[in-house]
Amino acid sequence: MRGLAAELKTLRKNSERTTLEIAKRSGFSPPVLNRMENGLREVTVEECATLLAIYGIKGKERIRIMNLAKQPGDMLIFRGDVAEVLRALVNFESTSTRIVEGSMMRVPGLLQTADYMRAVMVIARMSPDYIKDMVATRLKRQEVLWKQGAPTYLAILDEIAIRRRTGSAELMAEQIVHLCDMAQRPNIDIRVIPIDHGAHDGLDGNYKLMEFAKGDPVILLEHRSSSLFVDESSEIELHQNVTDRLVEVALSSADTVKFLRRLEAEFRRE
Question: Which of 219, 205, 215, 214 is CA-nearest to residue 76?
Fold first, then answer.
C-alpha cells in the first residue's frame, strides 16, 4: 500500500497541483486524498484509475502503477525491474523517520564509498555505463542521511561483511574509514557483530526496516532476482524483535568504531 501511496504523491507533486485541486477534480475529499498519499487508506483500482487519468498517465507507466493497485495491501513485489525497486526505495527512504538495516554480507548501500560500489558491481559483471549510472544514483540516495530532518539510521553488520575483501586492501581500508566517519554523525549508529560470537538471527537474511511519522513501517527484503516490500504487522514485529536481539549481541557503538580502526590497520598492513 505504501508503494502505491508514494507513487501517487510523486505524481501529484510532479503535476504541481495541491491536494485541494486534485480533490476537487477527482471527487475525493482532501482528507481522503491525504490518507491515500500517506499509505493510511487502501486505494482501490477504480480510485487509482481516476487519479492516473487526472495526471495524464498512459501506456506502460499506467499499467505499472495499476498493477501496484491490484497487489495485496501488505506486500509489494518487484521481479527483475531495478528501476521500479529504486523508485519505491527512494520514496520510502526520503520519508522515513528511522531506518534499520541488517546487512550480513556487504556494507549497506547507504554507507558505501563510490569505489566500494564500483567493485561490487564489477564483480556482478555489470556494464561500465550501468555502473556509472548506479553509482551516481546510490550516492544521491545517501544524501538522505545528512539532509535537514534526516532519519535516524541503525546499521547492524556481521564482521564478515567488512572483513571479506571487496576490491583491494586499500579500498577496504578507505571503506572502513568512511564507516568510522559516518558513525560520528549524531543520527547514525553502526554496530558490528564479531565472528567470535558465532551464529545469530541476522544470518537468516538481510533486511531494511523503515519507519514513518505517519503510517505503518515497511520492510525491504532483497534477493538476487526480486525485491519484496512488506508492511504486514506480523513481519514488522518479527524484524523489530530480530533487531533487538542483534543489538544485544553486537558491539556497542564505541566498541564498533574501535574494532573498525583495528581492522583498518590490518588492511593497511597488507
Answer: 219
CATH number, domain of 52, equals 1.10.260.40
Please count the other Cβ atoms lying within 10 Å of the Cβ belonging to residue 129.
8
Instruction: Report the range of poorest mean pLDDT among 25-34, 157-166, 254-263.
Output: 25-34
Shared-domain flag, residues 122 and 37: no
Domain with 21, as residue range(s), is 1-71
Cell numbers standing for residue 44: 482501490
16-68 pLDDT per residue, tens: 899 899 988 888 888 888 888 877 678 888 889 899 999 999 888 888 888 87
Whole-number Å distance between alpha carbons of 105 and 117: 14
**Number of domains the chain contains:** 2
CA separation for the pair 55, 193 (Å, rounded): 48
- 212 has which bridge partners? 96
